[in-house]
Amino acid sequence: MKRANLSSVKIAGKRALIRADLNVPLNDKGEVTDALRIEESLATVRHVLKNGGSVVMMSHLGRPKGPGDKKLMMNAVAKVMEQKLGTKVVKLDGCVEPEIQKRTKALKPGEVILLENVRFYPEEQESKEDFAKKLAVHGDFFVGDAFGTVHRPDASVAIVPKFLKPAVAGLLLEKELNAFEKILGKPESPFVVILGGAKVSDKIPVIDNLLAKANEILIGGGMAYTFLKVKGFKIGSSLLDDKNLATAEKILKNAEAKKVSVLLPVDHVVADSPDAASGQVVKGSFEKGMGLDIGPETRELFRKRILGARTVVWNGPLGMFEKKPFREGSLLVAKALSESKAFTVIGGGDTAAAIAEFGLESRMGHVSTGGGASLELLSGKPLPGVEALDPA
Questions:
Q1: Class of domain 186-378 as given by CATH
Q2: I want to staple 147 with a disulfide (CB 3.0 to 4.6 A). Which of 15, 176, 179, 248 is the partner?
Q3: Mind listing the pLDDT tens digit for each residue in 12-30?
Q4: Is 363 annotated as catalytic?
C-alpha cells in the first residue's frame, strides 16, 4: 500500500490539486453538522501552504440529483474550511469550465480555491478521461487525500493521476494506509476482530481475508443472528440474512479449521421493535421479539477479550446504538477499547459515528474517515484511488 507522499514533491511556487473527501452531513438549513472530514483534510492543505504552494481542492458532496443541485453546493463546506484554516477559501461555481481553469492558473502561493461539487458532472462517476484531463489543468501536481472515496474509480480520484504527475498521497491518506498496514501486515498477537452491523454479506470478504491473521473474531449486531441460526438457535424476528446461511456455516467451519475462535452473543437485549422504550435480557434462544443489542454476559465476554488483545479492529456497531435502550453493547465495547493497551483501529462509517457519539475518538489508536474504503481494505481488495498514485 506504500505510495509516494508529499515529502517527495518540491512544493514552493506550485499548485497542489488535492482530491479530498469533504462529503460531510448537512442539516435542513444546509449547514455542516459534523466537520470531522473537513478538519482531517486540512493537515495536507496547511502543509502545502507552509511550504510555499497554493491549493485547489475538489470533492463530491452527497448524491446530487443533477447539475446545480443547490442543496449540495460546496458553499457551506468552503465556509467551514475558511473558519478552521484561518485563510481565505475561494469557492468557484464550476470544475472544468474555461473561466474556472483561467482562475486556477492564476493562483498565487498561499491561496486556496475550492471547486464546485464534482458530482454535478456525470462524467465524474462515469470515470471519463476527457473530464479528468480538464480537472488536471488545475494543478502542477496531484494529491490523493480522499480516503473515504479511494475505493471508487471516479475520474477525480483514480483518473486524474494518470494525467497529472507527480501524483502522491496526502497526509490523511498516508495516515489511514499506515494504520491499516498494522492490521493487514503483521499484527501483534493476540489480534481480535470485532464485527457488527446488519449484513453478513458486507463482512464475508473481511472474515475470509482476516481468518489467516486473527486469533479471535467477536460477532454482534444484526449479522450475529444469521450465525446463531446456523448453530441451531431460535432468533425470533431478528434480522436474518437467509441468502447467506450456507456461507455463514462455511465461515464457522473455516474458522474452526484455522483454530480461530469465533465468539457469538450468549445473551441478548430483545424487544418487539427498535422503537420500544426498553428491552428484555434473554439468554440463548428466544421465540418472540428481535435481538437489538448484545446482553450483559456477552458484553463482559467481549470486554475480557479486548483487554487481553494487542491489536483490535472494529467494524460495525453491536446493536442499534442510535436508540438509547440498545446502545449499551457498543458503548461498553468502545469503553473497553479506550482502556485497552492494544493498537485499535475503528473502521469508519457507523462505527466511527458511534465512537464520536460516545466522545471516545481521542482514546483510539486510529478512527478511519472511510467506512466503505475500510471494508475494501480489510477485505484485501485493491483501492483504485491508491493504485493510481506514484509508487513509493
A1: alpha beta
A2: 176
A3: 999 999 999 999 999 999 9
A4: no
